[in-house]
Amino acid sequence: MRVDLFDFELPTELIALRPASPRDAARMLVLRGAGETLDSHVRDLPEMLEAGDVLVFNDTRVIPAQLEGRRGEARIGATLHKRIDLRRWQAFVRNAKRLREGDPIDFGSGVSAIAEARLPDGSWTLSFAGEEPVEVLLERAGQMPLPPYIAGKRPTDERDRSDYQTMFAARDGAVAAPTAALHFTPDLIDRIEARGIRTETLTLHVGAGTFLPVKAEDTDDHAMHAEWGRIDAATAERLNAARAAGKRVIAVGTTSLRLLESAADEAGTIHPFEGDTAIFITPGHRFRAIDGLMTNFHLPKSTLFMLVSALMGRERMQSAYAHAVAEGYRFYSYGDSSLLLP
């Protein structure tokens, strides 16, 4: 499909620079079926769901994966986006024209790496020196990798270390937050569970590729970056049992949705999964594993706006986003939410 079909006008003042406080005070646009549209709030989510529904969260934890360093006199910026092994990460590099294979980069605070190899997509393999786990090095020298549409408007600060982390964060490895879950609080989860709504977790380490623009003119020509994910056997079994009992599985965030769809077979059975996924969901995709999605508002012409258009219909989502703009909803990672129930 033509990428320009997924474009829309967005006033820059609607890009949220901080999350709502408290988190569940964020607004939520609810779309049900073919036509119902409701303005609500995240705190009202328990009343929007039914007993037996299952909310599936991503328990990945964002690491401070953005590094600023030097190769000689040249300033080098690196955003890690995918682990290769214990000491090597794939990274997008700023000022990469000043790098040669084998060059050392000093990131300060006793953290350094060798620019090992330039990859076909323009990213680099960085091999970190020393024996400390790379995650420990990042805590010392790294910054939280805020999306460029926030980082371009204000500097990252200490508050982002907690703001850009969900309450479910347990497994280090993401370089972008699963932002739909940023809206949840312990009190909201208590009220959800009190209504008989169940929760499950999986892990998808979100990569920086989620921020990359779609430069192709046709969706067939866009290559997705792979991300590592895992669904254990017990979780898959419980999700399959819920759907077999006629209950709904609702993904909290496009990351949870993409991993569930990657793990499901043609019959809709979710299997245990561990490995990379580069699934690209566009209109025409037949959803096999999920019955709904809670997600934030996405960028024009992004793969994620294509995903929600696949779930609800492109014209429906264009209309919903026009409504959200007119009503002043806040967009992107720190913005408001939507609940999509086809």
Automatic annotation (TrEMBL):
EC number: 2.4.99.17
Protein's pathway: tRNA modification; tRNA-queuosine biosynthesis
Record keywords: Cytoplasm, Glycosyltransferase, Queuosine biosynthesis, S-adenosyl-L-methionine, Transferase
Enzyme class: transferase
SUPFAM superfamilies the UniProt entry points to: QueA-like
Molecular function via GO: S-adenosylmethionine:tRNA ribosyltransferase-isomerase activity
GO cellular component: cytoplasm
Cellular localisation: Cytoplasm
Organism domain of life: Bacteria
Catalysed reactions, as listed in the record: 7-aminomethyl-7-carbaguanosine(34) in tRNA + S-adenosyl-L-methionine = epoxyqueuosine(34) in tRNA + adenine + L-methionine + 2 H(+)
An individual GO BP term: tRNA queuosine(34) biosynthetic process
PANTHER family named among the record's database cross-references: S-ADENOSYLMETHIONINE:TRNA RIBOSYLTRANSFERASE-ISOMERASE
Family, as annotated: Belongs to the QueA family.
Role of this protein: Transfers and isomerizes the ribose moiety from AdoMet to the 7-aminomethyl group of 7-deazaguanine (preQ1-tRNA) to give epoxyqueuosine (oQ-tRNA).
Assembly and binders: Monomer.
Protein name listed in UniProt: S-adenosylmethionine:tRNA ribosyltransferase-isomerase
Species this chain originates from: Tsuneonella litorea
